[in-house]
Structures are given as structure tokens and as C-alpha cells.
Amino acid sequence: MERFSEMSMRCADNYYPTSEWTMANEPDDLGWSRAGLANAYEFAASIGSSAIMIVQNGLVVSTWGTVADVTGIASMRKSLLSALIGTHEVEGTIDLNATLADLGIDDCEPALTLAEKQATVADLLMSRSGIYHAAADQNPAMLPPRGIHRPGEQWFYNNWSFNILGVILERLTGVPIAEDFSRRIAQPLRMQDFQPQHFYFKTIPQSLHPAYKIRMSARDLARVGLLFMNSGRWDGVQLIPEEWVRRSVKPYTDLGRGAGFGYSWWTGRYILRSTATLVHRHQEEKQFYWASGLGHQYIMVLPDIGTVMVHRVTDSDNGPRGEQIEQLQAMLLASRTIGVPLTTPITE
Question: Which Pfam families does the UniProt record give (predicted)?
Fold first, then answer.
């Protein structure tokens, strides 16, 4: 990584990485404590984390672990697909109000019912389709009974919906999803490690539709977070419509404890503890959002403080426990020396 001087940092607002990220000489230059981060990283090593990357206004505050390793990103794939869908919606290729019946979508027996086929693309994005058909990469024991909810009625995190979004996008564009993502997002972001062959598919006999899977490095995922933090803009170019980013991270479902779910992004709120808020005794809630994967992996974006964080694990099936990831998150954010976010807990 390139290094950036403290003087230059103070004279600029935001940066975009080129072929390499630019790193601060010291975390303190960007308002983070080196000692605090070291303590957090020591704890991360003890709970199964494999990589952490923190970016402040486009500059790397600190990295720990194997940030260049290309590994499976689990359900973070869903947020990335949502971003890709946004680039097509503005062009009129995909209509969020289109139903599965409109699109000619069905599945293996027991086939979709007429009621299930009324689910829209928007329902799929919000995980409110009400379709609990067998799906690739889905534990069938976790599914509710078919027909228990109407489309749009109930939130349920269901891989059938997300798998179908990939199928719909490929059908409407006529472009393989890996090629599409590479051309519209990975290449413009100048991802360092991503290759189209890092997309792959998983199938089961009980469903016609595969789950699309993605391998990616922590440092490339951080570029996606930076893109969203900047409302879909990258170095002066609007790659994803700003309105789509806003709609994507709007909580359409209240999941409790401050958490919500948008267009395949998780949302939360936090209070910024700072000298100003303590003096004036006024604490304003701010929004953050994240892409989440099994094992408590995430790309987290806190736009109001210009921060992106990525967390990866060694084994997604045996990642940190919920209370451990909350403790790690608190330690990382407490390492800020200017304004400490007090976040809601992170969920899978």
C-alpha cells in the first residue's frame, strides 16, 4: 500500500483507491488509536476472525490479517447483487413491480402457487416474498410451511428469493451475472483481487434455480463499502444511482433492537458520543448499514463519520458468537479518538 502524509490528509476530504489503497502513516492521523486497534485485533485473533480493514474517507486507517485472501463471502453476495440490480433498474431493464407471473418464474414440484407468483421483484429484494420453496444454499429445516404468508406480508430471510433475483437479472439482461458485475462494478472500482471466475453456482435437485456464490478479498469488499458511502459515486462517476443507494439502505422491515432490512442490506442506528454531544447533552441518532454473511462477516458503512469496516472469518461455519462480535465491534469503534459510535448489535 502507498503511504499518505498527515499534511496531505488534512488538506483533502475524500479519496478513491487506484490500483492500490493509500494508507495513513499512523491511525492517529485519521482519528483512530493505534493502541486501541491493537487490543481489538488481539481479541479478534482469539475468536476466529481472519481479516479486518478500516477505511476513513477513502484512506486506510489500519488492516489486520489476510485482507488479500480471496474467500467465500457468504450472504454478503446478496447486497452486491442488489447494487448490480440498481444499475439496471435506472436503465429500465428490470421493473421492481414485475411479478414472478409476469416474468414466467416457476420451480420444481411442488410448483409455485398462483398466490406465490404474485410476489414482486421488490418483495424478493426486501426478503418479503412469502415463498418458502426448497432452495440451494438453504437449510430446509428453517423454512416455514408453504402458503403461510402472502407476498409482501412478512419478512423472512429466505435464500429462494435471493437466488431468483440472480436468475431474473441474467434472463432480463442476457449477460452472465459474473460478467455483468465485473464490467459494471469490479472494473470501475479497480478491484485488486476479483476475477469473474470467482462467481460460482450451487444447485440442488429440489430447485431449478442455482444459488450464485462469490469469492472476494476484504480489500475489494472495502471498495464496495466506499462506493456506497459515497452514494454510488466513484471518483466523479455515478456507477450506481444515488436514489438506488438511498432506497437500498432504507429499512422497510423493523427487526427490533434498532436493526432493519432494506433492499438486501441490513440497517441500524447509532449515537455518536463526542465532546460536543456530552457538553450539550444532545445525542442524535445516525444511520449505518451493512452487508452480512455467515460467521458475522460484514462490510459496514457509517456515512456520517466517513468510515467503512470489513470483517472476515477463517471458518464461516464456526465464526465468532454473537456476543463476541458485539464486543469486537465495540472495541473497534472505541478506538476512534474523535466521536465514538455506540452501535446497535450486529446480526447475521
Answer: Beta-lactamase
Q: Which of 255, 223, 251 is nearest to 83 (CA)?
A: 223
Taking each helix axis from N to C end, the angle separating 322-334 and 34-47, rounded to the nearest 10 degrees, works out to 170
Angle 272-222-196 from CA coordinates, rounded to 5°: 155
165 residue type, one letter = L
User: Are 124 and 35 part of one and the same domain?
Assistant: no
Which residue segment(s) compose the domain that 33 sits in? Answer: 1-47
User: Which of 287, 316, 337 is a domain's end point?
Assistant: 287
Cell 489476510 locates to 66
Q: Which three cell numbers stand for residue 344?
A: 446497535
pTM of the model: 0.93
Question: Taking the mean position of all CA atoms in its chain, how far away is CA 118?
Answer: 27
Contact 52, 186 (CB under 8 A): no
Counts of helices then strands in the chain (DSSP H, E): 11, 16
Domain tally for the chain?
2
| Together in a domain, 166 and 278 | yes
CATH number, domain with residue 121: 3.40.710.10
Residues 305, 309: Cα–Cα separation, whole Å: 12
Give me the phi and psi of 280, to 5 degrees please: -90, -5
Which pLDDT tens digit goes with each residue over 211-246? 999 999 999 999 999 999 999 999 999 999 999 999
pLDDT band at 302; cut points 50, 70, 90: very high
What does the pLDDT read at residue 9?
A: 45
pLDDT band of 273, cuts 50, 70, 90: confident
Give the chain's radius of gyration (CA, Å).
20
Q: What is the pLDDT of residues 142-167, one digit of tens each?
A: 999 999 999 999 999 999 999 999 99
Q: Considering 231, 265, 287, which residue would you say is the last residue of a domain?
A: 287
> What does the mean pLDDT of the chain come to?
92
Cα(236)–Cα(157) distance, rounded to whole angstroms?
A: 35
Q: For residues 136 and 166, give the distance between their C-alpha atoms in angstroms, rounded to a whole number.
A: 12
Residue holding cell 498527515? 6
